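As a warm-up, study this chain.
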Amino acid sequence: MTDTPALLLASSSPFRRQLLDKLGLKFIHQSPDIDESRLAGEAPLELVMRLAREKAEALAGDHPDTLIIGSDQVAVIGDQVLGKPGSREKAIEQLSAASGQRVTFLTGLCLLNTATGRTQVACDPFHVQFRTLRPEQIERYVDAEQPLNCAGSFKSEGLGIVLFKALEGRDPNTLVGLPLILLTEFLAAEGMSLPL
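Now compare it with the structure written out below.
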């Protein structure tokens, strides 16, 4: 491809921006303004794929000839969906529920080509086996790292790694919030071979 289309990350997340920086691509970022509420009866997999798509679509009108990346993530324990805790108390509650459990992180990814209207959407799962954690460990972790804007209440790229017994998945970047292996495949389908 001779002309590389503009690339837009539809996210306000500094973590996703740091991940996308790894690919060495020039991009801009903008926060999409969408309602991220779960629909009645909506399965977690459907939720993250819908929100990833809606985030990309929300910015499409203002960005012609652009590849827009949308992503969304939830953590799931059994049937319980864990989003961003937002408070210390909720973070402690989420990590207490995760203690000794296998937690699945579902990350939806969308790449929307506004020039052609083509949309690629998929979900990349990642599994985390948590250690059995004592209440004081959880509290010290939450106070040290303040993971209040992270699905599941931890930062795997930081001190959160001490909470885990094992990790299982295709791409460790997925756990942080942006599946780069899948994104590279989506970009290749749009004619962008990396590295550029």
